[in-house]
């Protein structure tokens, strides 16, 4: 039996908040702004919205494009090629046309999600990280949408929506992969901890300790290195938007500098 409290209300609220923020952001874009390049290779502001439109259409059960994109050197895998097919299929459109499709699909999606019952959210679904449920996939949709909103804002120098439920959900989800960085990639010694301090707009203290050869979040230990940065720098590093060299002036490392450097130079956890 599925209970009403199994509906992921917090996730839906954060998703709708991000949808609405992206709609308000784009409402007055000029065509030049729509075509402005972002940090994502080959993608403009418009391409970011096209990408999100395509994924929400897929989740709604609508058919994908039959268009096939040219080959670009920034396409690394079949999933990237599928994304590019959808994005490229809309490149001939004006920004206003893409914006209209965006408003239509998010209205349809939220209507579907707000009227769904707990059984719907418990259904099996393949997610970017493997088998899961629709509820788990939606959790990742908040991350994806909020990350792309920030990509657009950086490209156009329109900062905003840097804190709140969607930002916190995104940062906490990215944090889940930090043990891979601290343990496997940075080879932190047994019993040692790496503390990552986010100094706002979202504040976090992320402690990761190697116990019995495995890095674990939230376990206290001997802090060997402390890394301090703001949450937007964290997002750009973890999300693969920028490298450590791009943002090193925004990061402070204390303690074992060599260990801290190994962490921040291998920080990408999202492709």
Automatic annotation (TrEMBL):
Residue ranges of domain Mycothiol-dependent maleylpyruvate isomerase metal-binding in the record: 21-153
Residue ranges of every copy of the MDMPI C-terminal domain listed in the record: 169-256
Cross-referenced InterPro entries: DinB/YfiT-like (IPR034660), Maleyloyr_isom (IPR017517), MDMPI_C-term_domain (IPR010872), MDMPI_metal-binding (IPR024344), SCP2_sterol-bd_dom_sf (IPR036527)
SUPFAM superfamilies: DinB/YfiT-like putative metalloenzymes, SCP-like
Entry's Gene Ontology molecular function annotations: metal ion binding
Protein name, as recorded: Unannotated protein
